[in-house]
Fold this sequence. Notes:
Elements: E1 7-11, H1 15-26, E2 30-34, H2 42-46, E3 51-54, H3 58-69, E4 79-81, H4 94-101, E5 107-111, H5 116-120, E6 125-130, H6 134-144, E7 149-154, H7 157-179, H8 183-204, H9 215-226, H10 231-240, H11 245-252, H12 257-272, H13 277-286, H14 292-300
The chain binds 1,4-dihydronicotinamide adenine dinucleotide and 1,3-dihydroxyacetonephosphate (13P).
Amino acid sequence: MSSPPKVLAILGAGAWGSALAGLARYKGHQVRIWSPSLGNSIEEVVADVDLVLSAVSMPGVSPTSTQIQSIKLKENIPIVTATKGLDTETTFTPSQIWSSRCSDHPIVVLSGPNLSKEIEQELPATTVVASEDINAAKIVQQVFSSKRFRVYTSSDPVGTELGGTLKNVMAIAAGVCDGLHLGMNAKAGLLTRALPEIIRIGTHLGGQTETFFGLSGLGDMLTTCSSDLSRNYRVGYGLAQGKTLEQVLSDLGSTAEGVNTTNVLIEIARREQINVPISGQVYRLLNNQISPQEAVEALMERDLKPEFSEKTIPPKL
Ligand SMILES: NC(=O)C1=CN([C@@H]2O[C@H](COP(=O)(O)OP(=O)(O)OC[C@H]3O[C@@H](n4cnc5c(N)ncnc54)[C@H](O)[C@@H]3O)[C@@H](O)[C@H]2O)C=CC1
Ligand SMILES: O=C(CO)COP(=O)(O)O
């Protein structure tokens, strides 16, 4: 069963907004794109649309949702958020910000292993659409599902977006690991230990454990930590080659959310007393407190402990 063509507004004309616009057009939907760089009117773009999707980077979420809050959208249409980041001011996730501004509309998170360059190349990919309003998630599933893009639903929006957000920190660590040529044993060790760290933070912040084992968690971590198409991975790789963060970001010329996410995450971890060894070393590295080699040594020389304990992973598992 396929949904009849709809009119979509996509906010954000960057790599991800453009790739999602391509997927929607492939399904026969009409797509209007808004971005500050296009200089068009957001009111005109969202007028009478059937769905609004935000793919702005994290600094754009608060100002864009504030603008949408003051515009009368069609009643009850879903607002989809595809941003992977944490807000510097409030430490909130994008869906929490959208929910606080647009409470009359169901908020749906779209997140998964979705490198935009591969999607632009029309390679097959999977994703998750998650909402407390499962009917809204099903509508979004119908809108984007195609033979190129398989979309699953979930009722855990916060867990779904935290998987995609927190793996960006681990992608920086994975880039360091590969940039230092530490080998596959080290990489497997890093990624395997990264998952319980993501789960520890993600469940503390309200996500469900099982969500982090799915496409938006483990799936996105595997993609992002193994591909040099990932900007966050390239940040870590560049730092391992001895470049400064400024140099790496200027070479990138595009968004690497993991840098800001690491800083916000460490603020949360300190406030909430969450143990985040890998993210802690990424934070020190990004903030010029240690070298990549020292970060590796610090992780290898931590206090010895059992692999699994109640603190490592929630006891339900
Ligand atoms: N590129 C990718 O492969 C994927 C990216 N994402 C996420 O999507 C988000 C956007 O990523 P990209 O499109 O790759 O980044 P990008 O750097 O290519 O584009 C960012 C977009 O955000 C807009 N923006 C930035 N600040 C703004 C502000 N203050 N007000 C309004 N708009 C603003 C820019 O105009 C631009 O359209 C990020 O959170 C990223 O983690 C998620 C999945 C895949
Ligand atoms: O989220 C992504 C893939 O799912 C994109 O990763 P980067 O932002 O690191 O390029």
